Amino acid sequence: MRFEAKSHGLPCGGDNRLIKPFLAKLGFSLTDAQTRVLREIRRDMGGRHPMRRLLQGDVGSGKTVVAACAALMALESGYSVVLMAPTEILAGQHHQNMVKWFEPLGIPVALRTGSRKTDSEARGPGEATLFNKDSPVNSAGIIIGTHALIEADFDMPDLGLVIIDEQHKFGVTQREQLVRKGHYPHLLVMTATRFLAHWG
After folding, report:
1. What angle do CA 180, 18, 124 make, to 5 degrees?
2. Which of 61-65, 119-123, 166-170 has the highest mean pLDDT?
3. Nearest by Cα to 43 from 8, 73, 7, 6
4. HEC string for the chain
5. Alpha-carbon distances of 143 from 37, 44, 59, 129, 194, rounded to whole Å
6. Phi and psi of 37, rounded to 5°?
7. What is the 3-state secondary structure (H, E, C) of 166-199?
8. pTM passes above 0.85
9. What's the rounded mean pLDDT across residues 89-100?
10. Do 146 and 86 contact (CB within 8 A), yes or no?
């Protein structure tokens, strides 16, 4: 496969220093299925080639927690993460969750949408300047956003993992535009629909 021949996976397997305290404060235990999937994701993100994985499950099945753990693996490894959602409402919900989960761990969490993109706009808790190109990122963090993440003026240093929610609402070109913000970052796409996606 041409993709595998020319790409090398970033070492994003992590070391558990963030995941352990995250899970300890989560308030519930992961299911056997979630644990199994995370073991597979860790193997993929520590492998020779960039991960390209579909995470499928019904609404409320815990996909977001699995995605958060995958993000922590990349963050533990010193890489940044982006999470793209199709609407500002959904992006805002993800942002609220990540602020609640990640900021106590000292992880910067930022929000970038069509209506909130610049450093001069008012920000609430967790809406960091992480995405501002004029403010260099001093540590790995996560940015949650909408299509605004694929705009030309957005850049993400050391991008290790791209997470896309409701991936069926994005075209292949949009997905690839976001992935190209990094150098062959890992890709995790989430969907609640009953079909499988394949890509190279």
Report:
1. 70
2. 61-65
3. 73
4. CHHHHHCCCCCCCCCCCCHHHHHHCCCCCCCHHHHHHHHHHHHHHCCCCCCEEEEECCCCCCHHHHHHHHHHHHHHCCCEEEEECCCHHHHHHHHHHHHHHHHHHCCCEEEEECCECCCCCCCCCCCCCCCCCCCCCCCCCEEEECHHHHCCCCCCCCEEEEEEECHHHCCHHHHHHHHCCCCCCEEEEEECCCCCCCCC
5. 23, 22, 22, 10, 28
6. -65, -40
7. CHHHCCHHHHHHHHCCCCCCEEEEEECCCCCCCC
8. no
9. 94
10. yes
Q: Mean pLDDT throughout 43-49?
A: 94
pLDDT band of residue 177 (cuts 50, 70, 90) is confident
Long-range pairs, 93-98, Cβ under 8 A, ≥24: 94/64, 94/144, 94/165, 95/126, 95/127, 95/144, 96/126, 97/64, 97/68, 98/68, 98/71, 98/126, 98/142, 98/144
Residue 52 CA, distance from chain mean position = 13
Question: 10, 160 in Cβ contact below 8 A?
Answer: yes
Backbone angles phi, psi at 175, to 5 degrees: -65, -45
Identity of the amino acid at 6: K
pLDDT, residue 141, reads 93
pLDDT at 175: 77
